[in-house]
Amino acid sequence: MCGIVGYVGAQSALDVVMGGLRRLEYRGYDSAGVALVADGALFTEKRAGKLSNLSKVLSEDTAPPSTLGIGHTRWATHGAATDRNAHPHLGARGRVALVHNGIIENFAQLRGQLEAAGHELRSETDTEVVSHLLEAELDAGADLTTAMQRVCKQLDGAFTLVAVASDDPERVVAARRNSPLVIGLGADETFLASDVAAFIEHTRDAVELGQDQVVTITRSEFDITDFAGNPAEGKRFHVDWDIAAAEKAGYDYFMLKEIAEQPEAIANTLLGRSATGGRLQLDEMRLSDDELRAVDKIIIIACGTAFHAGLVAKYAIEHWTRIPCEVELASEFRYRDPVVDRDTMVIAISQSGETMDTLMALRHARDQRAKVLAISNTNGSTIPRESDAVLYTHAGIEIAVASTKAFLTQIVACHLIALYLAQVRGTMFGDEIGAIVDELEQMPAAVTKVLATIEPVRALARELRDAPAVLFLGRHVGYPVALEGALKLKELAYMQAEGFAAGELKHGPIALVEQGVPVFVVVPPQGRGQLHEKMVSNIQEVRARGARTIVLAEEGDDAVTPYADELVRLPSVPTLLQPLVATVPLQVFACEMATAKGHDIDQPRNLAKSVTVE
Ligand code: M6R
User: Fold this and answer.
1) Ligand 1 center to residue 283 CA distance, Å?
2) Domain match, 242 and 259 both
3) How many domains does the chain have?
4) What is the pLDDT of residues 141-188, one digit of tens each?
């Protein structure tokens, strides 16, 4: 939800800021803009649409040489995606330029006050009120840092703000509440960004800003305070991946690269989990074994693809630990007065670690004294930081908006947590846990095998390019896989796609089946006799009504062959691990379908990678 960059140093600020925005474009691509300070004046340029629109005008324009600037790539909340609503926004006389990620919830009231005082606001955004307020503080004699501290105290909501002033060529000032902001420390240059990806080609030394903090950066220093102006500290860290991870590495799209990286991502997530004596260990466990033994209910909260990973996890958690487990959309959780107490464990799953719906649900759970365990792919992000325990999915940066490797590694992480709980609570023997960990360790090879035989799925997607709708069926852990297959197709190919529990079909959705409708069926392993048999019947039911059946079944499962119009073979793996192999063809299908339709794979319309508004 909006990418932000700030820079002061010795290089061309325009080049650094545009390079940073390119790496942050996954956060939003409704518009983009930059502001530079040069010769006591502000130069700004902004354009609706993708960053390439801005690049084009900038190449025609003559931006002045400058070594200090800010930039923004927007996911629109208040006001349409127009040039006028694009950031940066200026103060009343153009003395301040400001970029913002988040939502200023009391902007209407602030806008009313400004307008009553004679301010003319040019955009429909919530952001513009802040640039006017900042500039008013400067006009009253404050410096930019003090102005930022004072203004932040008047704001409600979530925000990362980054500002520059025309008559202050030495510093960029930023603030953060509930939205991400990191500082990059280079040699004689300092960066600000929503995500380290923006400056990774310049430095891997970073500082994460805490809640309700203001930072002032110059070429050689940074200074952090709270909103009251008291000295404060950020958290220093070293980024453990480099620029190569943020590049496409020869693939046409990040999504293709990230699909291909899944075996390695799973292997990395499993790495180093066995402590001495074969016991499992998590990354940051701030919960005692006694607290874990006292847990009497687990609630998983997550959104989108992460929610689907949570649905898979429920089966493993209940089976291995015998603890009742609910899975809830994070955006719904706190509005239904959930029954949560100190013996509830809430597992918050979030690739970005910044999803606002999940963060707010997590905070609600903590207010009720629940223990919160985060699963995240982003080191030091807000959700892990605010949790009692963390397990990181070491999937590497995921840039494509459509989540792929994060999903598989979230499932692996959930399974590890379930096994960890089983270990602490003694619901499984050590050798049983060890056997499952061994099976998990076979998964990178199994996914590699799926990827090696994926070409027919691509061809099928091209052939079905004009299908009006696609259905996905699953049972047990195949059900969340069906939901995930449908979500991928919706978000990438903009098609009507629905995932159903196969047993539910006859209760209504079967009415959607007509001649030629493609129906993907995720067949459980044959070892799950009853489930398998029922699924074979479900395939026949849809086929009898004209569906074109695309059957995903394990090697050696011949029972399905007569009813499969297309057969996609999966490596034979235990039922609870099957989502790790069964999801991959569905990811590839959606990606190829979107390519065939000519859509933007990495940046589907209306979406953003990191959803930092509720
Ligand atoms: O960063 P998070 O895991 O919290 O993101 C949750 C969802 O927004 C995300 O999974 C979304 O559904 C993906 N675009 C799906 O591909």
Assistant:
1) 22
2) no
3) 3
4) 999 999 999 999 999 988 999 999 999 999 999 999 988 899 999 999
Q: In which domain, by residue range, is 196 found?
A: 3-246
483 lines ligand 1 (CB under 6 A): no
Is 152 one of the catalytic residues? Answer: no
User: Cα of 515 to ligand 1 centre, how many Å?
Assistant: 33
Q: Please, are residues 588 and 447 in contact by the beta-carbon 8 Å criterion? A: no
Q: Which of 246, 266, 288 is the last residue of a domain?
A: 246
- pTM, entire model: 0.84
67 lines ligand 1 (CB under 6 A): no
Question: Which of 29, 331, 352, 397, when mutated, tests ligand 1's pocket best, judged by the most ligand atoms within 8 Å of its CB?
Answer: 352
350 lines ligand 1 (CB under 6 A): yes
Question: Ligand 1 within 6 A of 486 CB?
Answer: no
Rounded to an integer, the average pLDDT of 63-79 is 93
Q: What is the mean pLDDT of residues 537-555?
A: 96
Specify whether 80 is located in the same domain as 206.
yes
Residue keyed to tokens 């692996």? 412
Q: Distances from the Cα of 451 to the Cαs of 86, 159, 202, 264, 542, in angstroms? A: 41, 41, 34, 13, 28
pLDDT recorded at residue 611: 84
Task: Answer whether 351 contacts ligand 1 (Cβ < 6 A).
Answer: yes
Q: What is the pLDDT of residue 614?
A: 81
Whose alpha carbon is nearest atom 4 of ligand 1? 350
Pairing of strands 182-185, 157-165: unpaired
The CATH number linked to 154 is 3.60.20.10
DSSP for 403-464, please give it: -SHHHHHHHHHHHHHHHHHHHHHTSS-HHHHHHHHHHHHTHHHHHHHHHHT-HHHHHHHHHT
> What's the pLDDT score for residue 592?
97
Same domain, 103 and 217: yes
Query: Is 609 designated active site?
Result: yes
